[in-house]
Specification:
The complex is a heterodimer of chains A (107) and B (361). With 107 residues, chain A is mainly beta. Chain A contains 1 helix and 8 strands; from the N terminus they run ββαββββββ. In chain A, the strands form 2 sheets. Chain A has a 5-stranded mixed β-sheet, with helices on one face. In chain A, strands 4-3-8 form a 3-stranded mixed β-sheet, with no helix packed on it. In chain A, strand 1 and strand 2 form a beta hairpin. With 361 residues, chain B is α/β, with parallel strands linked by helices. The chains are: A mainly beta (107), B alpha/beta (361). The interface between A and B is medium-sized, with 32 and 35 residues.
Chain lengths: 107, 361
Amino acid sequence: MDMRIQHHPILGDTEPVRMVKITVDGVEYEAREGEVIAAVLMANGIKVHRHTTYRHEPRGIYCGIGQCTDCVMTVNGQPNVRTCITPVEDGMVVETQDGFGKRGGTK
Amino acid sequence: MTQREVVVIGGGPAGLAASIEAARLGAKVLVVDENKRPGGQLFKQIHKFFGSRAHNAGIRGIDIGRQLLKDTEECGVEVWLNSAAIGVFSDNRVAVLRDGRTEIVQAQKILMCTGGSENALRFPGWTLPGVMGAGAAQTMINVNRVLPGKRVLMVGSGNVGVIVAYQLLQAGADVVGIVEGMPRIGAYGVHAAKVRRAGVPFFLGHTIVQAIGDDHVRQAIIGEFKDGQVVPNTEKIVDVDVICVAVGLRPLTELAWMAGVKHDFIPEMGGWMPLHNENMETSMPGVYVAGDIAGVEEANTAMDEGRLAGVAIAQSLGRIGNDEAEAKKQEIRDRLAALRMGPFGERRQAAKQRIVERGVN
């Protein structure tokens, strides 16, 4: 699934940039250098970023500008990273977060 | 301790316009912004703005943003990015989180331009992935250039709801409808006409009843809405993978509360907000506000309020004579009054007048 907008009537075509690689729950994805983590997930149809602590309900993007913290995930072993404002880096390891998450990663 | 003459919190339209104005008058300005790029929400506004030529009419928000960035750079404003202001303390000290460390900046004047945040709407299923603020969808399509889904239901027919609905169409999504609790469309006619021409139905006098899905939205239930209740047996199910919520914004006031600024509840401007005088100064001497934090309006009013605060700050620092400052401020106030004319603006104009009359002392 590719949800990227390649052509746009106002913004024009997407310009090529250097691509980097990140993994999300162990699966490798291509990312545009400098884009936010949430964009890579959305481009690939991944909607669930975490599960809540007590009821284990799924949560995804809500505000998209770093205010609501609904989209937090464990990134390079650090839990509670706001994926909608954090840019990707080559080799970044992203994990779906369970509850408060675990320092060092793996749920 | 780091010292700066003027610290502007937030580099959106209000903060940048204020910084440019103050810097051109000779003040030393530092802007702190928690994002990786300044410009606030202007870069997702790909539509043309309204107003007179003085208000950038006919220019897209994104281009106004580019011009602001250029001017900011040219007049020597210092900008700290990825830097979140996390506290404002007595004697105008600002705590800034940068590179994982907290830095205290001693300011002579503080201008808060923290902006606004979208209101949420609670209904069964509102926390499911796929339910999001309309502004979030707009950021995703226009800044990040990814579609949050293929079939979108918009809740709210104000300017944000209708403009974002149109931009979702431009980005390639299908908008299955715009739900509005009131019996009439809230947005400006010119925006509403564009989505109508594109064939998007308005469900007036309707509300969202429920979002249905397992791990993300798959359907929405909408129904007729009367006297604050869903009318029984009017429910309809629509297949969607995104539900956008566009039910207004509120001022982002945490830092202003922390600074001890006097607030009041002003419904026309989005709720609780810091009170300010005709120079945008709050009840705390040396602490100013501009833009959506000082009442939710538009980018044009935010920029002019920023300029007003910028001149007032330069004046209080002695960088501009009183006569010249008063003339400049009057010119900006006249422009603001012109922006707040008409059926949409006059409520805000009246509210602003009430705020200033209420006084900050």
